[in-house]
Amino acid sequence: MGVTNPEFPDENCPGGDCDSLSCNPLPGMNDDGSGVDGFHDFMTFLAPPPRGPITASALAGDLIFRGIGCAGCHQPTLRTGPNPVAALHKVSYSPFSDFLLHDMGALGDGITQNKATGTRMRTAPLWGLRKITRFLHDGRATTYEQAILAHDGQGKKARDRFAALPGWKKNLLYAFLGSL
Predict the structure, then answer these.
(1) pTM
(2) Nearest-CA neighbor of 76 among 129, 125, 147, 122?
């Protein structure tokens, strides 16, 4: 995040250009570690976004979501492992993601980071989906349909099953996605 601290004391050179650091308004150590620890704690204990109303249409759409294979990667429920913090110990939560890397073919962003090659991407969680208006990692989709149809690679079979659905089943699926 660009905040130097005892764990990461050296500035990153933007785009590999270390000369650009000459304009750094705060050279040296930015944080003694307490701010980074506080941010970590905040993110660790931040509650997930609440679900919207779960209507009969949303429940029917959930069955379609699972039936066409979306839940293979966008897993509805995960469970934490053992944790010394009681609030995080073996807790079930619903991110609608497996947080794993998947080969997404043409949907990939071309960026390589460690083991994530240009076509491999981490499954985005769908919780809070009802509150956003632009979808996919780059915001190129403005509708659920556009986002689903952009899936490729390991998401291609689910995409193709979605494309074959009659309109009324797509509407039930949209009701489900709109409840997340």
Answers:
(1) 0.80
(2) 125
